[in-house]
Amino acid sequence: MWDSAKTAEILNGKLYGSPSAYFHGCAIDSRKVTEGEIFVAIRGENTDGHRFISNAYEAGAAIVIAEEERMVEGGIPEVPAGRALIAVGDSIAALQKLAKTWRIELNALVVGITGSSGKTTTKDMIAAVLAKKYRVHKNMENYNNEIGLPLTILSTPRGTEIMVLEMGMRGLGQINALCDVCSPSIGVITNIGTTHMELLGSQEKITQAKWELIDNLPRDGTAVLNSEDYLSVGKASSLRIKKLFYGIKGEYIKPDIQGSDIQAAGALETIFQANMGDENSRVNLPLPGEHNVLDALAALAVGRICGVSLEKGASALEEFKLSKMRLEIIKGISDSIIINDVYNANPASMRASLNVLAERGGEKTIAILGEMYELGDASVLGHSEVGQAAARLGIRELVTVGKLAQDIAQGALDAGLNSQRVHICEDCDQAVAITRQLLEGMESNTWILIKGSRGMKMERASDKLKV
User: Fold this and answer.
1) Maximum Cα–Cα distance for the chain, whole Å?
2) Measured between alpha carbons, how far is 275 from 271 in angstroms, rounded to an integer?
3) Judging by DSSP bridges, how do beta strands 109-114 and 162-166 pair with one another?
4) What pairing do the DSSP bridges indicate for beta strands 447-451 and 337-340?
């Protein structure tokens, strides 16, 4: 990338050590530093990266960025020969400025993705489709916040033509700040749900926070929006830039790219027809559920904007694989089949996964559902609606985990699910014990869905029920 002298100039920082130390890549964890990288020492809630500067040099860091205030407090650490240290006012601001400068130098098109659910899957699908024609770089895992997104940009190799960047948020103004770093030209909103209600307080503010992505698009940019999402369609009515809708039913507006003739196939595959104008293609998606069809349509839409045909986009999606702990199929005890979907949860994703369970398991189904966080005043309603969906879909046995999830149980009971089929548990161990008992009285090939918010660590149940 740049040498230490140029890097210090970009950051308006004080340079110690060699002015000609070059770096490639960036890390904020000294344990993950590799030879020739830049280490940014960040003060966090639980630890302070400034304590590990010497460790970073030992691991091979070419340059360290640290806060000048900490240098005054602890003294300037010894800088090995040929290495450099740059003192700045704010390490996170420095990280973001470096990322912004590198993005400008790369001159790559940026696709930004946000939404209440499905954004990581959509990001990965978009990257897969665009890779049919371009050199593409995307977020590492879910590096989608004020630190993760800059790290992703700084890991982008020269020659990259398109960056596909997921954007997370926990409050107003955060996506604005991310857009300032990455300047997206295409913005995708998967949906606007109730996640973050606890932090933002109202659906209106959640919508406002997500819409910051669209507000930051240039005049010649394009908004890619879900035609099944009422709030997105409503907000788009006043948009002056180009917009492209994707969808299945077109409940609120006719989609520009539409999925039809959706059929379940194999263990977790879905076959559907994608249509856009005079162009159409059959898509063999190795994922289940209409929610994944919607994500695939968003990816195909971005592909078409960038000149990737539906046929080529469909071929990319045929080879697509979800990240670990997302609709992962595991062989379970008593010849059961576990859908390990424990990465995270909100009401929309819970209902989507229950649809998959009902679609695949029929009458032989068990849903083990944990608490959902950050719903605020919508918590009772959100949990209750999930329980109602379980009852409506005919889920045979419902096992809830945690106090908040009791509202899932109550919702199912209110919707008519037999009380003998509703099992309220305090923790994963109790849920596992009850599930083992249930399996003794059920046929082989019973399908089990395990899902809950990340903080619930529902994989503990998966680990104890798998073979």
Assistant:
1) 73
2) 13
3) parallel
4) parallel
With a CB cutoff of 8 Å and minimum separation 6, the contacts of 279 are: 304, 309, 310
Give the pTM.
0.85
Contact 111, 302 (CB under 8 A): yes
Q: Quote the DSSP letter at residue 48.
A: B
Burial class (CB in 10 A: 0-12, 13-18, 19+), 378: buried
Instruction: Identify the helix (H) or strand (E) that includes residue 200.
Output: helix 197-200
DSSP string, 205-256: HHHHHHHHHHHTS-TT-EEEEETT-HHHHHHHTT--SEEEEEESS-SSS--S
Amino acid 274: pLDDT: 98
Taking only the tens place, the pLDDT of each residue in 314-334 is 999 999 987 777 888 899 999
Q: List the structure tokens of 414.
A: 């209110």
* Token representation of residue 105: 């130098």
By C-alpha distance, which of 349, 342, 389 is closest to 365? 389
| Predicted pLDDT of residue 204 | 85
User: Rounded CA gap, 223 and 241, in Å?
Assistant: 7
Of residues 46 and 106, the one with the higher pLDDT is 106
